[in-house]
Amino acid sequence: MTARSLTALAVANRILLWAVFLTLAVICVYPMIWLFLNAFKTTNDMFAATWGLPKVWHWENFSTAWNYGISRYLLNSLIVTTATVLIELTLATMAAYALVVLNFRAKAAIYTLILGGAILPPEVSLIPLFRVMAETGLYNTYFALILPNVAFGLPFTTFLIRAYMTGIPGELREAALMDGAGEARIFREVYLPLCRPILASAGLISAMRVWNEFIFALTFVESETVKTVTIGVMSFAVALRADWGVLMAGLALSILPILATFLIMQRQFVGGLTSGAVK
Amino acid sequence: MTDRSDHTRATWRQSLQGWLWVAPALLFLVVFVYGPALTNIRFSLFSFSAMSLDWDFVGFDNYLRLWNDPKFTTALTNNAIYAVISVACQVGVALTLAAVLEARVFPDLSANLFRTALFLPSILPVVVVGLVWQLLMTPTTGLIDQLLWETGLSSWSKAWLGEPDTAIFAVIFVSQWQWTGYIMALFMVAIRAVPRDLYEAMEIDGASGIQQFWHITVPGVRETILIVTIITILGSLKVFDIVWVMTAGGPNHSSEVLGTLMYRAAFRDDMIGYSSTIATVIFFIALTIGLMQIKLQKDR
């Protein structure tokens, strides 16, 4: 915008926009600041003044919360998330490779079948899945979370990777075929290295989804040793209704890993999580 | 499809190879998504509990019962309200915010900070968001109540989550808080793909920012608007976690949605057949929305 267009109206507009965005930014960020500050207070301090810095910083809230089981929940979430992402990326990349470069019958129908899974919410499969988990002994194990999480993540992940692979020139594969390389080798040595950026984005999207997943974790596991952090903080919140300080310290700890990663790598985060916005 | 090989019909040998590559993914979808979804439809025709060995075939009785269940009406209405508000906020508001941030109204650094701040809620687990806002909305001790007292608006003070009139709206508000910034970031990516010279040409013609928004931005990101709208509506249909954490459908079932209704029927009241019926309704609504999306995208 040039100086001459800055009429009084434009100035007023600009002030208004600043006010709107500043307000929205505060509304979006402040609840988290509030959470972290109050995590240091005793319940009484909180009732007296819910904002403001703690008069005494009660670090012990965090150690109490940590010993209450948060550490175990975080570990379980890490295991479930890592396993899901690895399996999901492997299967999705293989499927995408076939859909882009190989020629086979019923290809369009198969692609539709894979994508169609994205329409169905977990609710529609939950009850039969629960019975399957119970009957196969998978109930209350990591697999009870990993397997359905992979299945429900595959449609979007395959879509993302396939879209990216269509941009890789087919000549690369043809040249490799001439040299006598098989599909497995072309996949591993040509396509996988070229797909690194989309694998990182798709992996991040999938990891966020699994880390925050709720309904499977609520339904398919029950012991403290398998519970992921989302369900962990739920039981934590029920147990600590009366002790807000420790509860909030627990909540703060549960989001600390994700929050720290986001703040350090926010550009990659936003970029990765929004890939797929335009095809 | 971009590859040229589609024109020649594959031999069985070629096909076998292709099928082997997609088989693992397909297997997962059949075993954990499609298979259970179809089984669920069959369940909806029976009356049984988790432990019972004998299933009574009841035909469409469960559907009849659901149709006459006032909680079902409440849930459907709440899902619809959820969808309308979410589309308004996450498509309308988010697109507007994205357009402002991309219009270089603010210096780059502050635009970037605004985007990060607004994006932040979307990386947090829904459970934590729900619990934190539950604390914020607690009467007397919560931040919102204290804020209202401080500013002399104490007459507005309310148990937002504890009253049937406001509970669902309080939950919907939190959902908008969490997701508007994320959709905004999606729109920013889409807007960046719109050719810049279109804006410059209009600016030379003296068009205002608002005119540029309607004539260039909106048509330029039509595809994204369509997809985001569909995703938002689907999201409002399957919403479960935020409601379950904040109100569990209460007070007195006023904030019930299809997801919470289904979950409670199955895992609290042990009415598996009835619960499957609710899940089947969700299935068919989702299917309808999905088919609509395919049709809309084909039309262009």
TrEMBL record, chain A:
Its main location: membrane. Keywords: Cell inner membrane, Cell membrane, Membrane, Transmembrane, Transmembrane helix, Transport. It is found in: Cell inner membrane; Cell membrane. Coiled coil: none annotated. The keyword Membrane applies. It comes from the Bacteria. GO terms for biological process: transmembrane transport. Residues 74-265 form the ABC transmembrane type-1 domain. It is a multi-pass membrane protein. The chain crosses the membrane at residues 15-37, 78-102, 108-130, 142-165, 244-265. Pfam families: BPD_transp_1. GO terms for cellular component: plasma membrane. InterPro entries: MetI-like (IPR000515), MetI-like_sf (IPR035906). PANTHER family: ABC TRANSPORTER PERMEASE PROTEIN MG189-RELATED-RELATED, SN-GLYCEROL-3-PHOSPHATE TRANSPORT SYSTEM PERMEASE PROTEIN UGPE. Part of the ABC transporter complex UgpBAEC involved in sn-glycerol-3-phosphate (G3P) import. Probably responsible for the translocation of the substrate across the membrane. Belongs to the binding-protein-dependent transport system permease family. The complex is composed of two ATP-binding proteins (UgpC), two transmembrane proteins (UgpA and UgpE) and a solute-binding protein (UgpB). This is sn-glycerol-3-phosphate transport system permease protein UgpE. It comes from Gemmobacter lutimaris.
Automatic annotation (TrEMBL), chain B:
CDD domains: TM_PBP2 (cd06261). GO terms for cellular component: plasma membrane. The chain crosses the membrane at residues 18-36, 80-101, 113-136, 167-191, 225-246, 271-292. Pfam families: BPD_transp_1. Residues 76-293 form the ABC transmembrane type-1 domain. It is a multi-pass membrane protein. InterPro entries: ABC_transporter_permease (IPR051393), MetI-like (IPR000515), MetI-like_sf (IPR035906). It comes from the Bacteria. It is found in: Cell membrane. Belongs to the binding-protein-dependent transport system permease family. This is Sugar ABC transporter permease. It comes from Gemmobacter lutimaris.
